[in-house]
Amino acid sequence: MILKRTTLSRRTILRGAGATLALPLLEIMQNRGFASAPAAAKPPVRAGFFYIPNGVVQRAWHPVDEGHNFTLSPTLQPLARVREHISLFTKLDRIKVAGTDGHAQAGTCWLSSAAPDQLCPAGFPLRTTIDQLMAAEAGKHTAFRSLELSCNPYEDNRESVYFDNISWYGHGNVARSLRDPKAVFNRLFAVKEHQEHGSVLDLVMDDAKSLNRDLGKVDQGKLDEYMQSVRTVEKQIERVTKRQAEIDQLKLAPPTKPWQAMTRDEFIQVMGDLMILAFRTDLTRVCTIMSSPERWGSPLNVHGLFDKPVDHHSMTHGQGKEDVRTRLEALDHFHIQQFATLIAKMAEVREGEGTLLDSTIFTLGSGISDGSLHICSDLPTIVAGHGGGAISTNRHLKSQLGTPIANLWLSMVQLMGVKCDRIGDSTGALKLG
Amino acid sequence: MTNFYCHSKLLTGIAAFLLGVTATAAPFDYHSVRGRDAKGPLSGVLEGENLAMRGKSRVQEMENYGARWSGNAHLLWDGKIGQKMESEFRVVRSGRYRVALQLTVAPNYGIFSLSLDGQELRKEIDLYGPAVALAPVVDLGELTLGEGSRRIEFTLRGANGKAEEFQGGHLLGLDFITLAELDPAKMAAAPPAAKVVPGPTESPKLAVTLDEMRPVLAAHCFQCHGNTKKVKGNVNLKEITTKEGFLANIGLTRKVAEALAYQEMPPADEDPLPPEDHRKLSALFNGYLEEYLQAPGRLKPVVMRRLNRYEYNNAVRDLLDLKGDVYPLPEKVIRGSSYFNPAQGQFPDHATVANRPLAKEQIEIHILTGVSPFAIDLQAEHGFNNQGDQLSLSPILLESFLQLGRSIVNAPEFDNYSRLTGTFFAEPPNTERNHWPTAVEQRLRPFLERAFRSAVTGEVLGRYVAFFKREIDKDETFPQAMKSVTAAILSSPRFVYLTERKHDAGKEEPLTPYELAARLSSFLWSSVPDDELLAAARSGDLLKPEVCDAQVRRMLESPRSKALAENFARQWLRLDRLITAVPDFDRFQVYYSRIGCEQFKFGLQTMIEPLLLFESIMVEDRSIMLLVDSNYSYRSDELQSWYKDTVPFGDRGNRQRFSTTSQRFTRRTLDTRREGGVITSAAVLTMTSEPLRTSPIRRGAWVATVIFNRPPPPPPDDIPEIEQDDVAIEAQGVTLRQRLVAHQKNESCVSCHQKIDPLGFALENYDAIGRWRDTYQSGLAIDASGELFGRAKFNDVIGLKDALLARPEWFMRAFSQHLLTYALGRELDLSDKPAVDKIVARVLADHGKFSTVVSSIVASYPFLHKTNQ
Questions:
Q1: Residue B324 touches partner A, C-beta closer than 8 Å
Q2: Structural domain for A45, as ranges
Q3: Does the CB of A175 have a partner CB in chain B at under 8 Å?
Q4: Label partner for A213 (CA 20 to 30 A): which of A287, B86, B629, B820?
């Protein structure tokens, strides 16, 4: 297996630029100017999450120093061009639920940090994740509560629902991620489609209510997912309709390339672009992106990086070997590169007096720190964006040993206007400023 | 928690078996089991593309000429004047038949004479036509046909004056032959009586108490399980001192009983239990389990299931009487179903089928314009993608349902695609607009009954009639208003969920007839019930065991039962893992095929082989033990070469232009028991390998999960890395097996790996793409020997198959559990043990006959009952 690291940056950027649908759309917004509702007032804070599976190579991740202007580690090099917008958090932990699969809980518990005593039948806790807590609040103002995206490129169905999702509405109720960019685009911008949903909502709701009387308790819980969805869709229709004129003005066109034919970087960038579009048009303020699903021991093409498909998960268990670790570092580097490209894009989207990035918190992380040992302490965590000025950037904040990552989640949730004083095992809000 | 019950394979009778009490009888030939005889009439058609091909006969895809050819293909032959196209078809019973032929006409087709078994029936059939089209039907009238193979010959006699030549001769195209038996009285021939064989012997009940057995536990168990601070496997046998304690810790009790049944404890390096003590201890813990299960209210509830996209497709297809699928389903491994006619009781010798799309351009095709499937639901860790607890519904999915309903009925192709266009959707004749609602009420009643799988209340009916009225008040046409109503029905929770009426918490009740009909149609067809099943539900007769059993048999004879292969078998075998397998291109070039300048994975067609085997067992009602060891298999010519030739495809290598759109699979008698069954199929062996070498651990885990339903626990956090290339291992003078064993010296690894690995080592004679090898590449010898559950030693893969055949209840139990899990849409647990025991006893008595597995599941307590939480 030959590592083609030298060609990575140039090719990735070229590909990323050439094939992503939304870049021209971003330009439209920058140049023609989107009748930006938030321009008058202070722009709202948005929260994006960028998940990387299977942890990172520890020794190439950690910088040698702390504080402002810290020295970027080898893996973090791609962040150099956006370093004034990022903050690196280290020594943040999640509680590991012993006795269940290390990977199944990695993605599912990442954004909930739920304690092991909150188990449900899956064998690990499936609590409401913080993006959904944020969505409950921020979604009061937008057409869509939230957006869940996955750049899962696999056409097999090797793993269960717990490996392909990081967002949960609540106990056992997964906010399933979309993996077809075209479907995401249509959901956001096909106003007419939404309006047509309206005609039968009353009817099916009446059906649901009468059905509910005959069901047992657990089944009623299932039917409640349906009824909640009807209510959500009703709201969406109303709000999307209000925004119709503005959306039409943008004259957006959906992506044309099927996701199955996209290269890795194209897929991730297209999904990122859709998130940026949704934020900038204020159709939603909360979005999660899985850059790749958790574990999924199937070989994966990382175009331009390796000449043969690689199995990310089994590489993490082989990192005791120098050549495997080198390749794994290159893959980590690749993910950071994708993340950095999205940050740079957001920094160029004008909004009000500043940029979209000024009012966004865009968090990269993984539910495992070291994939070879399934360790959940010292989770890789980078926050990009200024959160409306609340976040001190260009710094490395090393927390005290044993600090729960839930403390960071708590700060973020509060920043998004959610009234809440505890997330999972949090012990207090982490100071961001 | 994974499948709670899957670890609990103990049955008193079986325990006796595992102890080696029986299993001395001569091996039983499972090929002799045939529950369903081939029967006539050979209803429908014998597809030309599925007939025996001789000489220049081949299959031609006809899709490009319009969707008129049956199966979208015909048999194509060309030759010079005087030459013959010869083929044959099988008649399963002597009798009078009406025979007709559907041929093709084209500008370069010839004039042929036709003979059957050497007797000329037609002197001249002119197949000239100005364009490629279907010829007028050639009706051969009534013929007496003897049982067996009938030879059919077309001799090229000349050509129409207007006909063009083709390579100095002319062509012939045969779409299909129809046979209709004229004496239906014979059809009802009584099936042969099932052989009665004794069931597993019940071991006599032993009265044993805990006090009596505590010294034995102390002597053999406490050292690891109680005496020291670190308790192995979290099993502390010392601290529980009463029967009540074991009943309260039933999970632990089950674990102990299982470890005893499989003789896993005490471990091999400790003193074995004296047989008498082993028997008593087993009786003690099995007694606890039985006592636990006798308590009422143990049935595990089924969580209300949302339709997955395969079920949604089938339900809409059947409800709207569509001519095909609603949308393309990548999960359908085999494309094409013209060969699948279970009513014939005979699986055809040839099947021309398409593989899952090899071509990238097929990714985005639509069957109905604007209709796309929603996201696939992923399989549960050790189950299927029909488990209510994992099938949630989000706003996005609701949007998909809303949009699907609308886009299906409004697709431009819909009116030609649904057979209800002239009836359900058509404006009632001679009816005033203001009387439409009355007519609609009559039409909606049966439609809603089927869509919602329940009796239709006035409230629900009134709601949809009112919706219709609102639509026509908007000046919609009758068909359009009916389409809107249909779209609404397809979005209703009563359609998208399989609902069961539940009452008091903890109370176990029998299903209502409608609920039973819904469970049956979901299980066997992944769809809604049909009219006949609904009629049995409406009258309540379905609750009678004999009526229910007759319905099951009828449903298995319907082509809709293909869902069992498409949905159950595919998931059971975890076959779609092959899709992402990437055997190393340089080392395994035959896996790939170059077409133009594109590489395709030729090897994906291996997925079809185990599925056709499964279908043949189902259609001919053979023994499920053939899934372990069969003396026949279905393979294309290329696949046969893959298995058999030292250099597959000769010097053409992977440059051979394989068809990416269809392959022709032929039933072949196998000449070695190294082949046959699913375990040794290339698909399974490839998808459980690494790119550059086999993976005995993956293979062993697959066998443990699929064949024994004993999935290994999740791997530990720190897994040592093994070289990814066996060449690198062998360069050190050791085999992969030796390398793995050396790696697992660590005690914590050994306990699991000694259960998993032997199952994988037994398959080391197959390389990473499933081809047989006598030695490793470097010449090192292959050691495929091992031991099953401490009971059965074997030297190679044939020995492994023999061990499985000699103890058929292992596989029968596992298969029954898998199928019951699928049928119920939930994980099994300990409470299902008595039901599984009964199913296995019946299956064992019938030597694994497929229909017995299905009917025993349907007759089981958990299938017929429901409970509230």
A1: no
A2: 5-179+253-415
A3: yes
A4: B820
